[in-house]
Amino acid sequence: MPVQNGDESEVGLGSTKKPSLDKDLQKIEQLEEATRAVSRAWPSVGIAILFLAVAGIFSSFQAGAAAGSVLIIAAAIIGGYMALTIGANDVANNVGPAVGARALTMTGALVIAAIFEFAGAMIAGGSVVQTISKGIIDPNLVPSSEIFVWIMMSALLASALWVHLATYLGAPVSTTHSIVGGVLGAGLAAVGADAVDWFVMGSIALSWLTSPLIGGVIAAAFLAFIKINLIYQEDKITAARRWVPVLVGIMSAAFGAYLVMKGLKHVWKPGLPAIAGIAILIYAAAYLAARPWVRRQSEGMENRNQSLRKLFHLPLICSAALLSFAHGSNDVANAVGPLAAIVSSATTGTLSSTVGVPIWVMVIGGAGISLGLFLFGPRIVRIVGDQITKMNPMRAFCVALSAALTVLVASQLGLPVSTTHIVVGAVFGVGFFREQYTARSRRRRAYVRTHRMHNKGRPRALAPEELKHRKLVRRSHFFGIVAAWVITVPSAAALAAVTFLCADWLR
């Protein structure tokens, strides 16, 4: 059937409009993908519920006929729920950039992260934790161990619910800030404002600003270094042989110091001179190992940016594993800390500022984080790694390096920071730097001149949609994530306060 004249403008080769049939087919494909996503979610929910049931049964054997056994079982289930939400939300920051850069497949990233998260929790998760996260509430002002148990239960449940909601909405948030908010809200409802250390709360609030800013600046600085010294060099291969071993050495030294300070802090606490000496030795060893490796990898390599990216794959994989190990050792306390405190108080009838962590509690925390990542983590992984701004191995390398260096700098300055805020801030920093750099680049100005020539010298006003697509950072994700960061502590606090008041009324 011949095409009518009235239809030619819609389907012609020179047209920018999509045929209505294509649009309808695209809508059907989107609906089918949404249906498949929902159908895949139900088995994951079933497995998560099964895990929580196993956690409850497991804890019942551990509690036995001890006083407060029902509370211990309930706390184990809630602690397992919190661990699942940590895995679903927080762990994405460790592997998201590597997945977005195509250095790791989603399956490979999930396997590596799950193994190293569990290993970090079990090997270096700590046998003793603080009962009141970050020292927010003075335990001496809590009237009884029973009230203390309900404070911890309310904080744990509220923080898990908030992280669950944030994950559903696609916002990577700090689980540490979430549990801090939970403890604050439940403590306020139970004891009052006098029991809160507002200086500690102020320093935590300060980290909302410092973490992403420091992470973004460091990541942007390293990306600028890579652009100047590798990407825009005439002989890219020679430049890579000179500078990639240096960058690998810096990353290795940073992660070595990071693991000693954060990942192994529960089992070994060396001083600053020892940490500096370890970092220098690791740098030297990594540099000497990387030089011949880079030379072998670059033999016969084409003199273009696409080839250079392959040199950053292995460092990215290593960084994802090390970040996951450090995260498992550090942030598992957000799930097992309150749970261990509940077990101790419910069993002994007393409360203290620090308690031992039974091995079965650590197993629930470590297994829950790994399982939560497998079942529900891919969505946040994609957001962090691909949807905020486009990643490639060089940009992802800058993000991972920034995460380790920012934690080191902040620790020495005594600033409380969030790894989530650092990594996501570094992703934003890389994206905004690229926007500014591209806008000022000669290549961009040449494009504009060429575009004006095609329009007979007349500058064409870009349509709003075209301007939107030329932004290298998605503003919707930026504003949504920042808003979620700001309201995490007050939201978790409000949920915990309501939960505690309801529990107090019911009992």
Query: Which residues sit in consecutive blocks of at least 5 with pLDDT less than 50?
Result: 1-18, 450-469
User: What is the percentage of strand-forming residues?
Assistant: under 5%
Share of helix among residues?
A: over 70%
Spatially, the strands of the biggest sheet line up as 1-2
Based on secondary structure, the structural category is: mainly alpha
Separation, N- and C-terminal Cα atoms: 77 Å
Shape: elongated
Tell me the series of helices and strands, N- to C-terminal. HHHHHEHHHHHHHHEHHHHHHH
Largest sheet: 2 strands, antiparallel
Q: Taking all residues together, what is the mean pLDDT? A: 80
CA radius of gyration is 26 Å
Number of domains: 1
Number of DSSP E strands: 2
Total helices: the number is 20
Subcellular location: Membrane
GO molecular function: phosphate transmembrane transporter activity
Organism: Methyloceanibacter caenitepidi
Protein name: Phosphate transporter
Can I get a quick summary?
The chain is mainly alpha-helical and 507 residues long. Helices cover 77% and strands 1% of the residues.
Describe the overall structure.
Helices cover 77% and strands 1% of the residues. Residues 1-18 and 450-469 have low confidence and may be disordered. Helix 9 packs parallel to helix 16 (393-413). It starts with a helix and ends with a helix. It has helices spanning 5-11, 20-63, 69-89, 92-100, 106-124, 145-169, 175-190, 198-231, 236-263, 272-298, 305-308, 313-331, 333-348, 359-376, 378-387, 393-413, 419-440, 442-454, 464-469, 475-506; strands at residues 128-130, 354-356. By secondary structure, the protein is an all-alpha fold. The protein has one domain (43-440, 473-506). The chain has 20 helices and two strands.
